[in-house]
Design a protein that fits this description.
alpha/beta, Rossmann fold, nine-stranded mixed sheet, 18 strands, 32% helix
């Protein structure tokens, strides 16, 4: 658990669930579902130690799925101490298979893998399913989502088989006395019709968790924690104008008032007219009661000079992270009493940078405010949103009174356009990208589509393509439109934008920006792709 959360009100932390990650692409969805239910949870690595477990003190544990086979000799094991901890366990997919194997059941590789929609027939009563099925309608089946290649063919001693599917004779199992449960399917995914209800049943009825995790409680707790951590000192916040940093600004303004100094860094990697837009947002969007100081620092030349010749996206992110800290430290030298640097780091940033508990996740990309930070900086970090998902951050902003113009604004990456220009960042590339991105976003607003997609932007590709204008040959650059729909930004699907809209945007870009000869549309989902290209 982060130091910041340790400082929080004990009541909010009293009822919590531990999610152990065995490598599933759906692990973050488990956490999101629990947060939606109103239960606090954290994700730890599958090899959590007994000491870490006892310090966290969960009221229940959920074991995620994963790509490994429970039949393999070197498969990932569930820590043995969990089985004697008297804490309820719920194993999902691989979590169920590993539980069955370690407790004496039998797991085999299935001759026929089971992926996608399935129906689970219920053969026995279980307290995990109480009130889930409608007895008046004589419901005896669940509509679920499967994704597995192994299957349990015999349950351990003390367990009973609860349900089966076409390809899994044991799709649910339970040891009711010890509160050990296994599901072959994934209750966390949207496609499992009764999935959320099953998770809610597990955490509330079996683990006896109270739903303390809600926006009002979170705001009150974070305000209290900020005041305790800062203790009268001044805080410097890098305010980008995005949702995350704006919510942090509102939270800190409510917590410490004029102890807050917000600095907006013009790093030369911003969208068209962004400096003036953020200035206007700060002066009007936070209301007349906002008392914090706001400064704009022009560091465009510093960032662009350092990015010259750099092609690797990880190097770009880390270089930008280090340069941000240098700029803030230089700014702080002219101020008295600055000990803290506040950031809008959120939970997906931590997970994707492999900075979560245990550090077992693969680094997907180093976020400039996590993996890109220097180790020798002089500030103490304050990151109140570090354990929150994006939709929780937005709800927090609503509770703090921020207007929709801020709350519903699409995310913008900390490294800015540096990760939307593939390869080396050049001023010419940035200029083209800014103009194309403005056309795309403006037309999204004009068509009433901006609020219907979660994030949209243009990517500049440093390759040239042949085109024709009038009777002349054009040989110029390529840009790609990107728009996604998502709830938590851990998974996303590409947005199905109307063809006539895409046609209009493409024609405008090609007609108005002479350096572009071709417009493409990205139809990749996350996973396997990420939302940003770098």
């Amino acid at each position: 658990m982060s130091d910041f959360l340790k400082a929080k009100n004990v009541d909010l932390q009293k009822h919590k669930i531990l999610v152990l990650d065995f490598g599933s692409q759906y692990t973050q969805l488990i956490a999101r579902k629990l947060r939606e239910i109103g239960i606090y949870c954290e994700i730890y690595s599958h090899d959590v130690t007994k000491q870490e477990f006892e310090v966290f003190a969960p009221k229940g544990v959920i074991l995620s799925g994963g790509p490994d086979s429970a039949t393999a000799e070197n498969g990932l094991d569930i820590p043995e101490f969990l089985f004697t901890s008297e804490v309820p366990l719920l194993g999902i997919c691989y979590g169920m298979q590993a539980m069955a194997k370690q407790l004496g059941g039998e797991v085999i590789k299935s001759s026929q893998k089971e992926f996608g929609f399935a129906e689970v027939e219920i053969h026995a009563e279980s307290k995990l399913l109480d009130s889930i099925l409608d007895s008046d309608k004589n419901e005896r089946s669940l509509e679920v989502w499967m994704s597995h290649g192994d299957r349990v063919i015999s349950v351990p001693s003390g367990f009973k088989a609860i349900g089966s599917s076409k390809n899994s004779s044991i799709a649910m199992m339970a040891n009711e006395e010890k509160n050990l449960f296994g599901l072959q399917f994934h209750p966390e995914v949207h496609h499992t019709k009764q999935g959320k209800a099953i998770l809610e049943r597990f955490v509330k009825a079996i683990c006896a968790c109270e739903t303390l995790w809600n926006p009002t409680n979170i705001v009150d707790d974070l305000v209290r924690s900020v005041r305790e951590q800062v203790a009268g000192q001044k805080v410097l916040l890098g305010l980008s104008g995005g949702v995350d940093s704006s919510v942090v600004a509102a939270l800190l303004a409510k917590s410490i008032g004029d102890q807050l100094i917000c600095v907006f860094v013009n790093n030369g990697l911003l969208r068209l007219d962004e400096v003036e837009q953020v200035r206007k947002m700060v002066t009007t969007g936070f209301g007349s009661g906002a008392s914090f100081e706001f400064r704009i620092v022009d560091a465009e030349k510093v960032f662009l000079d350092r990015l010259a010749g750099v092609h690797d996206p990880e190097k770009k992110r880390k270089l930008i992270g280090n340069t941000f800290i240098e700029v803030f430290e230089k700014e702080a030298k002219g101020l008295l009493g600055i000990q803290f640097l506040a950031q809008g780091t959120i939970y997906p940033d931590v997970i994707e940078s492999a900075a979560g508990k245990g550090g077992k996740a693969h680094v997907i990309k180093s976020h400039h405010n996590v993996g890109g930070l220097p180790t020798n900086m002089s500030f103490k970090l304050i990151e109140p949103l570090r354990q929150l998902f994006k939709d929780e951050v937005r709800e927090l902003g609503r509770q703090l009174g921020l207007p929709p113009t801020i709350i519903d604004r699409h995310p913008f990456p900390g490294p800015g356009l540096a990760v939307r220009v593939l390869g080396e960042v050049k001023e010419q590339f940035l200029s083209v990208l800014r103009k194309a991105d403005k056309i795309f976003i403006d037309e999204l607003h004009n068509y009433g589509l901006y609020e219907k997609v979660s994030q949209a932007f243009v990517v500049f590709l440093p390759v040239k393509s042949v085109g024709v204008v009038g009777d002349s040959r054009r040989y110029d650059y390529v840009v790609s439109l990107r728009a996604v729909e998502t709830v938590d930004f851990m998974t996303a699907t590409w947005a199905r934008l109307p063809y006539e809209f895409l046609d209009l945007v493409s024609r405008r870009i090609l007609n108005e920006i002479e350096e572009v000869s071709r417009v493409t549309f990205d139809i990749s989902s996350k996973p396997p792709s990420t939302i940003e290209w770098e």
